[in-house]
Amino acid sequence: MDLKDHIRQIPDFPKPGILFYDISPLLTHPGAWQATVDRLAEIVRPHHPTKLAAIESRGFLVAAPLALSLGVGFVMVRKRGKLPGETVPYEYALEYGTDTIEVQTDAIGAGDRVAVLDDLLATGGTLAATVELVRRRGARAVCAACIIELAFLAGRKRLDVPFDSLISYDS
């Protein structure tokens, strides 16, 4: 099954000049969605994670069923102020300014082997920040994976963990 057949490209969303890669058609097709989860499991399983850390919000859609499939824990990585309870923030640089992501204090700890998941890799900033946040919690970031990679933005160069994607766009 060619998963690209289930990705819709929407020009000028969310603003002019942006080409948005929409995974909604993939989610609505049970066979394509099952193939996606199965293929991601093939990528992540050899790294023997104990937890999957996913970046909000579409990363949650990717990692939650994958965590169940692999029999491991699921951790939400969110923007500042979105998680209840005590959290650990990590501020990282953007092209213009900074952003902050965080996890709950008890979500990741020493000894955890964490795979980082998102739906799409573009410039790699948020994925690289999540890898660093995992490390700052005393855990080992063992790999990262996405459904879609925008290879022309070279985001994987910012990652220092094994990375793979199911679909790559070169332009």
Describe what is shown at a glance.
This protein is globular. About 25% of the residues lie in helices and about 35% in strands. It has a single domain (about 45-170), classed as Rossmann fold.
Number of domains: 1
**How far is the N terminus from the C terminus?**
22 Å
In CATH, the topology is named: Rossmann fold
Subunit arrangement of the protein: single chain
Order of helices and strands: EEHHEHEEEEHEE
Query: How confident is the prediction overall: mean pLDDT?
Result: 97
How many distinct beta strands?
9
Per the principal axes of the C-alpha atoms, what is the gross shape?
Answer: globular
Uncertain regions: pLDDT < 50 for 5+ in a row?
none
CATH class: Alpha Beta
Radius of gyration: 15 Å
Adjacency order of strands in the biggest sheet = 5-6-4-3-7-8-9
Largest sheet: 7 strands, mixed
Can you name the CATH architecture? 3-Layer(aba) Sandwich
Question: Count of helical segments?
Answer: 4
How much of the sequence lies in strands comes to 35-45%
Structural class: alpha/beta
Specify the helix fraction band: 25-40%
